[in-house]
Amino acid sequence: MIMKLDILRGWPRWLNGLHKSNTSNETLPGIFFKAGFFFYLYSMESIKEIYKIGYGPSSSHTMAPRKAAEKFKKGNPGITKICVTLYGSLALTGKGHMTDRTILDILHPTPVEIIWKPETFLPLHPNGMKFEGLDKAGNIRSEWTTYSIGGGDISDTGKRDPSDRIYSMKTMKDILEWCEQNGRTFWEFVEDHEPPDFWDHLSEVWKVMQEAVERGLEAEGVLPGILNLPRKASSSYIKAKSYKGTLSRRAFVFAYALAVSEENAAGGKIVTAPTCGSCGVVPAVLYLLKTSYDFTDKKIIRALATAGLIGNLIKTNASISGAEVGCQGEVGSACSMAAAAAEQLFGGTPGQVEYAASIGMEHFLGLTCDPIYGLVQIPCIERNAFGAARALDANMYSMLSDGHHIISFDTVIKAMNQTGHDIPRIYKETAEGGLAVFGKKKIREKKSNL
Ligand code: SF4
Fold this sequence. Notes:
Layout: H1 2-10, H2 12-23, H3 28-41, E1 53-55, H4 59-75, E2 81-87, H5 88-92, H6 94-97, H7 99-107, E3 112-117, E4 128-134, E5 140-150, E6 153-155, H8 172-182, H9 186-193, H10 198-218, H11 233-240, H12 245-265, E7 269-271, H13 281-293, H14 297-317, H15 322-325, H16 331-345, H17 350-362, H18 380-399, H19 409-422, H20 435-449
Parallel strand pairs: 2-3
Antiparallel strand pairs: 1-7, 2-4, 4-5, 5-6
Helix pairs in contact: 4-7, 9-14, 10-12, 10-14, 11-12, 12-13, 12-18, 13-16, 13-18, 14-16, 16-17, 16-18, 17-18, 17-19
Iron/sulfur cluster is lined by residues 277-278, 322, 327, 330-331, 369, 371, 376, 379-380, 383, 429.
């Protein structure tokens, strides 16, 4: 019931238009069309879509292609060969992200040919993939083009097309007003909109996050891939124990973020928060707060709901895809989510939570996505550690305030989206710019000296 009232409250312009339409002889189908149109404008999908449990290293380059391959396989029985063409960013960094291996695994035992077209960017999205099913004579029996649009989701239009739009509002401004009018918090807003099994899902999410931290702290050795990058979480954790006070807090959060990100790089089980590449930030902050301040699991899970709401707003109004808007959309979003969660745990008001989330994103604006050899390792793993530390800073900074500030979260997200689209393509998950170029050169020199 509350949800229905929210829909009405969130649609003042629609109600206004409907009122006018009754006096101007608008037809019933026209009214329903208008209702559908405004529902599209004013809604978000479930937070369950932000937190997906799966395997690394990349939501856009492994989780989404896996989902696409499963769908094509299911819909095309009896095919004798499959050709998969990877375009643009998917092709440029697909080898490092193990996109081809994932597709081959899923489509096995059908013979598969992978065609790489890094120079071709399809018009609808930089992460395009085409599946073609062939018969014995080599004729194409079915063809399907789809796009990996970030956070492990696929879409045939290159845009988000949520099948289950359950939120009545999609701006922080409206949600803050709702909190103020009802005297309630962000997690209560989430609870009002999500289905009854939502808390069970978040419980499982939190369990998988903690397991990833703990596995990552135990694991040692070298991560897969050409970089021969040693894991650091385990030794960082040991060293963190020798620090005291705030330095210890900082050292532990680094270790926890490294632990989850290294698990992701190794193809381990993680939760997108909101993507695989940025999956270390939220668990690191929450694990630190649980172990250092004795917050109960119930409180942590409510904080996860608020963090999910922040991720959902960013996903809906901008993007969480590194290929679309750079790393500000991945680690920037994760930092914003973690900052909001921490703020809520420490008793921040909705206004302070909004401020923490704004700060968390604001200081990542313009951050490029430039993984060396397309592996989600350098700079991704360290970037998660710094994202987690910065989330704690944003939390503290906002806590010292009364929540008032000039640039709102909605404005920061608009700026992030615009900045992301203005960033040249080479800096958006193509491994053709920034650290990807200079780091690759350095690694080549090192290897030739061995
Ligand atoms: S640089 Fe950032 S956006 Fe790019 S793959 Fe790494 S974590 Fe993801």
